[in-house]
Amino acid sequence: MAEIVTLTTENFDQEVLNSDKPVLVDLWASWCGPCKMLSPLVDQVAGERDDIKVGKIDVDDQDTLAAKFGVTAIPTLLVFKNGEVVNRSTGFIPKDKILGLLQ
Fold this sequence. Notes:
With 103 residues, the chain is of the alpha/beta class. It has a single domain, classed as Glutaredoxin. It is 34% helix and 27% strand. It contains four helices and five strands. A five-stranded mixed sheet has the order 1-3-2-4-5.
């Protein structure tokens, strides 16, 4: 089971950029309907995979992080490997597409 980390500007470098595992980052907001649909799927992926880390960024609390990666719409998923964004998706996607981002 992948650990799920609440990401902030304070822990982002340590948890994501310096991670030895690929990191799936979910950028969301509490008022976002599609985010509420996507979040349980991201949690399922975290529960099934121990070879990744999963982080969540509340864009209302961490707008600096969202801006840093050019996120202008949510939900957005970013996949980091070795400190670099290697895949991204915006909007709701089904679980199989989330898994595909991690390939």
